[in-house]
Design goal:
It is a multi-pass membrane protein. The chain has 253 residues and is mainly α. The protein has one domain (40-252). It is built from 13 helices and no strands. It has helices at residues 2-14, 26-39, 41-57, 61-75, 79-93, 97-106, 111-132, 137-147, 152-156, 166-171, 177-197, 202-227, 232-252. Helix 3 (41-57) packs across helix 7 (111-132), helix 4 (61-75) packs across helix 7 (111-132) and helix 11 (177-197) packs antiparallel against helix 12. The longest helix has 26 residues, at 202-227. The protein is globular, with a radius of gyration of 17 Å. The mean pLDDT is 90.
Length: 253
């Protein structure tokens, strides 16, 4: 039952696919993290398909990239991009933990949030567009979208819930240390093996996954110091910065 609850929780939280109501438990959260790449597989396949089609049709690189990024945003209700904007505004404008939490909960997008969105969407779209012109680059796009969800594990490991966050209370410390690190490490191994199989340097996958992990940990650390813990926005922001890091490095290589 925990696996089924975790699957439904991942599907309903990470995609627009209806999954019914779930009463999350610590066991369900552990399954949620483990199954999260599978839950977003339709979005990953869609982004990969658009990348392949754009490259085949010879569309401008940025057009292909924006279409792929737009599809993923549509399939997630743009929740993670909204989280990026909220976290950026709260970190930039909250001089006290109380003020930062108030900004985070407000839902308004300020100047810091706008800049963060432009950077994240722009870097993702440009990277996807660059990969569209390479052999089997569409595979890397799909894999990056799927694996990026594993990086929410370190973002909630060993961090208390932000005061007033119900979702944070569910995820906070739900993962034992070995599980929080297992999935990102496995993502690095998969990326390294895939890069090698595609004739690219194996270390490119290690660099992509390592940078994604490092940035997710930066988000986690900043949230703990500034907000007093983590919430759903922090997890969403960690996913987006991890995806951005992977796409940039893979496109560079």
């Amino acid at each position: 039952m925990s696996a089924l609850s975790g699957w439904r929780l991942a599907l309903g939280t990470l995609t627009i696919i209806p999954a019914g109501s779930v009463s999350p438990t610590a066991a369900a959260v552990r399954w949620f993290v483990a199954l999260s790449p599978l839950a977003v597989l339709p979005l990953a396949a869609g982004a990969a398909g658009i990348t392949a089609l754009g490259g085949w049709l010879g569309l401008p690189a940025l057009v292909t990239g924006l279409l792929a990024v737009g599809l993923v945003a549509l399939g997630t209700r743009a929740m993670h991009l909204d989280a990026v904007a909220d976290v950026a505004d709260a970190l930039g404008g909250g001089w006290t933990p109380e003020r930062a939490r108030a900004i985070l909960k407000s839902g308004d997008v300020g100047p810091m949030g706008v800049v963060a969105l432009i950077l994240v969407i722009g870097l993702q779209a440009a990277s996807v567009g660059a990969l569209a012109s390479t052999e089997l680059g569409w595979v890397l796009v799909g894999v990056a979208v799927a694996l990026s969800r594993w990086f929410l594990g370190p973002a909630c490991w060993g961090v208390p819930a932000m005061p007033g966050s119900s979702l944070g209370a569910v995820f906070a410390r739900a993962l034992p240390g070995w599980q929080a690190w297992l999935w990102p490490v496995l993502a690095v191994v998969i990326l390294a093996g895939l890069a090698s199989a595609m004739g690219r340097p194996w270390w490119l996958g290690v660099l992509a996954g390592g940078l994604a992990l490092g940035l997710a940990l930066v988000v986690r650390g900043r949230a703990r110091r500034r907000f007093g813990g983590m919430n759903g926005d922090v997890l969403g922001a960690a996913i987006e910065v991890a995806l951005t890091a992977m796409l940039v490095v893979l496109a560079w290589g």
